[in-house]
Amino acid sequence: MTDKTMNTVDSSPVDATKRTLLKGGVAAAVITLAPGITLRTVEAAVTGPATQAKRWGMLIDATAPEGVWDLAVEACKAEQGWGSDHNKSGKANAATDPQWIRKVSIKNPKTGAKASLPVMCQHCANPPCVDVCPTGASMKREDGIVLVDKHICIGCRYCMMACPYSARSFVHEPVEMQKPHMPRGKGTVEGCTMCVHRVDKGQQPACVEALNKAGSDAIMFGDLNDPKSDISRAVSKYVTQRIRADLGVEPGVHYRGI
Amino acid sequence: MRSASRILSLTILGFAIVIMGLGSGLSAAPAQAGEVPLPNPAKAFKGEQCVEPIDVMRRDHFEFLKHQRDETLREGIRGKKYSLNACIDCHAVTSPDIAGGKLRTLKPFCAECHSYAAVSIDCFECHSGAVQPGIGSEIGKQSALPPNHEQLKADKALITLLKGHLDPTSPQGGTGQ
Amino acid sequence: MAADTTIYKEIEGKGGDYYSLVGWLAVMAAAGFGSMLYMEHYGHVVTGMTNAVVWGTPHVFAVFLIVAASGALNIASISSVFGKTQYKPLARLSTITAVALLAGGLMVLLLDLGRPDRLIVAMTKYNFKSIFAWNIILYSGFFVIVLTYLWMMMERRMVPYSKKMGLLAFVWRLALTTGTGSIFGFLVARPGYDAAIMAPMFIAMSFAFGLAIFILVVNVAYRASNRPLGDFILFEMRNLLGVFIAAALYFTVTQHLTNLYAAEHAGIEAFILWDGGIYTFFFWVVQIGLGALFPLALLFNPATGRSCQGIMIASILVIVGGLAQLYIIIIGGQAFPIPLFPGMEVSSSFFDGAVHPYVPSLLEILLGLSGMAVSLLIIAIAVKYLPLMPTSLSDAKVDPNHVAAE
User: Fold this and answer.
1) Which among B53, B79, B158 has the least Cβ separation from residue A44?
2) Could you tell me if residue B116 is inside a domain?
């Protein structure tokens, strides 16, 4: 029996944000082999665990031109793979197709003043969806991102009853060709993940990145706990408001210009 | 009266069994009659050794995946040794039953042993299992499956080992599932 | 009164009537199971439920049965906890009715899940902050406690303990209905819910719905098995039903008066009471008119209140009114839009600011009815194999003040 091992070295350049996330550094597989079989190892930068040191949040500028919100919605669909589930059944069904983020138009009936803004999961600090979930599938990460653990979601939809923002959708139809980073399945509940798979790698959520590429900073993303972050500075500069702040759920998504 | 209480307690017991059976009955795979051919999963076309020795993988792969899925989803720990996408990267194969053989997915590889052992998993209810952009980017560049990968790569020693392991009549058989 | 001389005996359960009843119930149960398989295969897209109305007709039936279950236990509680001995002979049937209704309701709830195959997850993973998870414990406990209570009443050696068990069952059932009402009471986001009154209102509703079902079960079971059923026990239950209907009505009135007083809730109140279309119709005509006022009139009118038919019709109406009330609470409460920006006109592609349409699908109705069928099936089978029904409920057997006529 020949024993071969191979050590791997973290030689890949890692950007600054990513480095702060590193904990385990590198996972190197050291393997004892069966006869005649050579070695294969996995190497990758290990991220996490998420801690309370961070509080991810967003600041949305409701005075931005309306068109950018359509761009954000399309970017989310493309990144996460929702919005085309009816392809199999062949017909779109507005009432049952998932919507992780939507453009909401508001109008003051007395004055006629109008605004338009995107609404998605508000990533509450006290999320009602997490409180009511019987199995703990609806959960909040230490860094404030609210997710559905579809491994243990039983599809009772109580979180959808509890959410003040209608932020979650139930998957009403079979889904195929889900994105590798975003498993989705019939009979479970889903919603905005704040692009957790990107955030963990030090990237921006897809909607933010798409807007940035288009030259808009209408959605700002960052760590609300870090006083030096752009979002913290902006939040301390402008009076922001949060949707249904009266409920005390402490959303992580701030708006200005409503 | 005595017999009545016995009937009642049996009723309670039966009720519990029905309730429990309802859950398992929904997910249980139908049993196949007759001789079931031994599983013969395709050899990984990429690399020569899995992240753990083969007997460990055979026994504990689901524990690794389950542990890792919870860490990843609930704590944001990514990039560790075990990952379903890494399984796809190496083990996804084509099958005439899936997308006319045009798509390389993990399903046939998993199904090979799972159907033999009558194990029903629901990973693929949500995970597509298909090779797509984004898979393998952490590990290495993506490669296409050679059409004759089984002949090219199949390791005789490995297949023999596997067959011996699964054959209840062999000395080391029966220890696996 | 001397020692309990009531004789309990299984019913014959041999005639064609019995088998056709059981057969039809089994067919209905199978239809519900078939609906579930169809829904599982195609997804919930085949139902009337949507991302805005996430709980539909199955939940109306499920909650109705669960609420009625705890109410059906009342006859047993009244006899052992409150010492009303005239109800004692019906205690066994009352407990089995309670268990059967809960089982039927839970089955509907379970079969409507997006992933019913994950029942084991629901039973092993608990989020202890969730009222839903508390309810799972309350429901499981209800089965254990009520069946133990039944066993203690039936097992001679255990009879002395049955009274304490009855008290526990009574406390537990109050907790259970509080939990069921709080499923809605705890929802801060929706103006139709978010009220502590949901818990006591559901308890009052459970008294009325459970007793209405029980009166029908007793009547049908005694008539079909040719056992004597005296007026005394029937009139006792009639009086009780009247009080319970009034109690449920009182909570409904209080709920809406409180909401009407707060300008904040003007929207939802106008929706239910004035311009909500089907929900307004259900409220005034079915819940209040047919489900409360008309049955009260039937029960306390000397002509109809002293006839078995009158009491049975009143009971049926209470059930119809109860289903309407839960339809208004569950579906009406979701159909009314969540106020995202109070005071503003809101619109979006996700139905913000608009009343959400909902039409029940046949699948949902079949699934809901199958829960009722399963409940009745359990009762029908239980009375055949267990000595649950007294051989006679004639006035001579039941009425403590009965004086033999002639």
Assistant:
1) B79
2) yes
d(CA C271, CA C277): 8
Strand partners, A45: A26
CATH value at residue C226: 1.20.1630.10
- Is C36 a domain residue? yes
Question: Which residues of chain B neighbour C382 with C-beta distances below 8 Å?
Answer: 11
Q: State the average pLDDT over residues C246-262.
A: 97
User: A155: which chain C residues are within 8 Å (Cβ-Cβ)?
Assistant: 113-115, 118
pLDDT of residue B150: 47
Q: Which residues contact C50 (CB under 8 A, 6 or more apart)?
A: A95, A96, A172, C356, C358
CATH topology of domain A56-256: Alpha-Beta Plaits (3.30.70)
In this predicted model, which residue has the larger pLDDT, A11 or A66?
A66
Contact A180 B132 (CB under 8 A): yes
Residue ranges making up the domain that contains B150: 54-166
Secondary element (H or E) of residue A220: strand A219-223
Q: Domains of chain A: which residue ranges? A: 1-48, 56-256
For B79-127, write each residue's pLDDT tens digit: 888 989 889 888 888 888 888 888 888 998 999 899 888 998 889 999 9
In a domain, C2, yes or no: no
